[in-house]
Write a structure and sequence with these properties.
This protein is an alpha+beta fold. The chain has two domains: about 45-175; about 180-335, no CATH class. The protein has eight helices and 19 strands. It is elongated and about 85 Å long.
Length: about 325
């Protein structure tokens, strides 16, 4: 009787110890996921994303208090790019379960081209942990494998065609937010616009308390007899609230050659806090003959564009239609 009771007590202790180990996890606090735990149930739970290409250093995408995502805490990520990525993280589903040689081939390729993905919540608890593999031969799905699991899955995005690997192939030039400038018009003290090849159109707009002034950039000594249009100045300053680019061109191998030419326009801005900003515009059309790809050249010719450099040393391509309202002339501000 006593031996039986002792065995029951020992068995209960072993069961309790087992559940304690399962619930506490290992000393690294790494959870164990089933091989089907790939999509996350609620994307709002995800606060941090780690992405690492095989044999390369990884990086973090982190959601800050402003609700925006940043790469490694510094680089603001484009909203559309982040929306697409989080949509995949939450909505992808199993297309089919590879078996036999196909499954073995997926795992071999993961050792060569796998992209490691880890998702964390605000408390730094890991929510998901898997590898993204190659796309299917039909380009209708992408292989995934939960870290430590044996069974890979081919995943897809419901009601969509195509593959998912591209969403995880993140490069700074692709994901960076395309905003060039987002200024509060009330914080702008002065905007000087110079047209080096059209000096009579150049001007300086000033804010003096609640009033505005506009004068020629190149002083002529003549007095202005026309009436100033304050509404035109207000509308002009509003344009600086949202200046966006088409693309980043910091690695453009023609940059030095482009910046050695005379700019079409130079914009200098003085802010209330003492900060100075500047933009220089160079017509892209002048350099189209240096574009070797005829298809790319035809595409670029469809829309008037500029190369633009900033005092932050960034280099962009921007479209004229989005900047035409700051590319005005001195006469624009007078009735």
């Amino acid at each position: 009787m006593k031996k039986t009771l002792l065995l029951i007590i020992v068995l209960l202790l072993l069961i309790a110890a087992f559940f304690l180990v399962v619930n506490r996890g290992d000393t690294t606090n790494s959870p164990i996921f089933s091989d089907r735990e790939i999509a996350v149930e609620d994307i709002e739970d995800v606060d941090k994303i780690f992405i690492r290409h095989r044999a390369k250093d990884g990086f973090f995408l982190k959601k800050k208090d402003d609700g925006r995502w940043y790469k490694d805490d510094t680089l603001l990520v484009s909203k559309p790019i982040m929306s697409n990525l989080t949509g995949v993280l939450a909505n992808m589903t199993i297309k089919y379960i590879p078996q036999g040689p196909e499954a073995d081939g997926i795992k071999r390729r993961l050792n060569q081209i796998g992209i490691e993905v880890k998702l964390f919540d605000k408390q730094n608890n890991m929510l998901r942990d898997y590898w993204v593999g190659a796309n299917t031969n039909k380009e209708d799905g992408t292989a995934f494998l939960v870290n430590g699991a044996e069974q890979p899955y081919v995943m897809e995005l419901p009601f969509s065609t195509g593959t998912l690997r591209t969403f995880f192939q993140i490069k700074d030039a692709n994901i960076r937010d395309k905003h060039v400038m987002s200024l509060d018009p009330d914080d702008i003290l002065e905007v000087a616009i110079d047209y080096p090849k059209n000096t009579e159109s150049a001007f300086i707009v000033n804010r003096i308390g609640e009033d505005y002034s506009a004068e020629p950039f190149y002083k002529t000594g003549d007095s202005e007899s026309r009436s100033l249009n304050p509404k035109a100045i207000e509308n002009f300053l509003l344009e600086f609230e949202n200046l966006v680019s088409e693309s980043y061109e910091n690695n453009n191998n023609k940059r030095e050659n482009i910046e050695s030419t005379v700019p079409f326009m130079i914009c200098k801005i003085k802010m209330k806090d003492g900060e100075n900003k500047s933009l220089k515009f160079y017509p892209l059309s002048k350099f189209l003959d240096q574009e070797p790809d005829p298809n790319s050249r035809r595409t670029l010719e469809l829309v008037d564009r500029f190369f633009m450099t900033t005092n932050d040393k960034d280099f962009f391509i921007v479209q004229h239609r989005l900047y035409k309202n700051i590319m005005v002339t001195y006469n624009f501000f007078y009735l």
